[in-house]
Amino acid sequence: MTFPGPVDRRNFLSGGAGLLLFTIAGERIKADGPEPEWTKLADQIRTPPKVRAAELRQLPGLPPAPAPAPGGVRREYWIAAEKVHWNIVPTRRDEMMDRPVKDRAKFTAWCYRQYTAGFGAPMGPATMPGPTLEAETGDTLVVNFRNKLPVPATMHPHGVLYSPEMDGAYKGTYTDPSGFVKPGATFQYSWDCRAGTEGVWPYHDHGPLDPAPLYKGLFGAINVRPKGVARPDVDHYVFFHSLLPGATGLAKPFMCINGRSYAGNTPELRAKVGQKVAQHVIGMSNDFHTYHLHGHRWTGPDGRVVDNVTVGPADSYTLTFTEDNPGRWFYHCHVFSHLHEGMNGWYVVDP
Ligand SMILES: [Cu+2]
User: Given 155, 165, 319, 335, which is the most exposed site by the fewest CB atoms within 10 A?
Assistant: First the structure.
C-alpha cells in the first residue's frame, strides 16, 4: 500500500481509511472519500490506439475462440455490467452484537448481471458477486460482455488460460479492445479451461478505472470443476471485500461479505448433516483476511488440520468437509476490526 504522506492520528485510528485508494487520470482517490465523478474521470482517459482501430474496423479480426478439448464443450454466457441500487445493511441490524446499525448504507453499485442468450432477458438481478461462471476440465468459456455503465469496463479472469487479446485488462497505449469496452459496447471473451485450470477463481473489472469498478461491486467467481469427479452437495461462495466511502459516497466504510455487512444481512449459508460441503473464499480488497468457521475443521493442502486460513487480495481458497455438526454457527473474517465492522455471517446446519 502507498502512503501519500504522514498519517494523522484520526486516520491511523480509523484503520487507514485516509490512505490512497488508487490514482485515475492523475487524480488521487482516497478511501475515505469524497466519491469522484466517474464519468468526468473517464472522459480524461484517451481511447487506446488499438481500440480506436477496432472501432474503425482497421484491426484484423480476433483469433477464433479456442476449440474445447476432446470431451469438452463450449459454454456461452451473456453478462452485462449495470448500475444497481444496493443496500449494504437491509435489516439495519448487526445480529452478532444484537444492536441496530444506523449508518446510511444505500449507494449505487456497479454489478455483473446474467442474461439469456443474445441478451434476451435478465436471469436475475445484478448482484455482488456477479453470476458464477461454471465450466469443466476441457471446456471453453465464451462470455459476451455488454457494458451498460457510463464508464469503460471489462471482465478479466483469473486461473483460466487466454491470449493477450482476451486479457480484459487496460494496458495504457498497449490496450487491446478486450481491456476497454466502452459504454454501450459488447465484447466477446473466450477463455480456455483445459486440464490444469480446475479450481475456483475470481473474475473482475480491469478497465481504465481499475480498481474503482471492483470497489463498487464488479467481481464474481469462475468455477472450473474437475471432469469425472463427484460434485459437492453444496457450494458456498464467500467474497471478503470492503465498500469504502471513496467508492460509495457513504460516510463510513463497510467490511463486507458478498456486498453485505453484519450477520442477518450477509449470506446465510446452509447445509445438512451428511452433505459434502465446499466453501470457496475469495479476497477482493486491499486487505488480508482470514476465514474462520465455528464448530468445523478441515484438512489443508499440506495435510494439516486447520480452522482458520489467510486469504490475500485476489486469493481464492476452497475448503471441503462432510457436514457432521448441526446448529447455528458463525463464519467470519478473523481480523478483529473487519469482524466487528460487518465481516461475519451465519452458517446454519440442519440435522
Ligand atoms: Cu478481513
Answer: 165
C-alpha 241 to ligand 1 mean position (Å): 8
My answer on whether 18 and 134 are in the same domain is no
Confidence category of residue 20, pLDDT binned at 50, 70, 90:
low
65 domain residue, yes or no: no
User: What gap in Å lies between CA 50 and CA 56, rounded to an integer?
Assistant: 10
Domain co-membership, 149 together with 19: no
233 and 154, same structural domain? yes
Q: Which domain holds residue 44?
A: 9-55
Distance 239 CA to ligand 1 centre (A): 10
A 10 A CB-CB count for 57 gives 8
φ, ψ (nearest 5 deg) of residue 224:
-95, 105
CA 207 to each of CA 85, 132, 179: distance values in angstroms, whole numbers, following the listed order: 22, 20, 6
- Residue 22 grid coordinates: 488508487
Cα of 178 to ligand 1 centre, how many Å?
A: 32
Report the separation in Å between the CA atom of 322 and the middle of ligand 1, taken as the mean of its atom positions.
26
Position 7 pLDDT exceeds 60: no
120 alpha carbon – ligand 1 mean position (Å): 38
- Report how far residue 53's alpha carbon sits from residue 99's, in angstroms, rounded to the nearest whole number: 56
Residues 195-231: tens digit of each pLDDT: 999 999 999 999 999 999 999 999 999 999 999 999 9
DSSP designation for 44: T
What are the tens digits of pLDDT across the range 273-287?
999 999 999 999 999
Give the single-character DSSP code of 59.
S
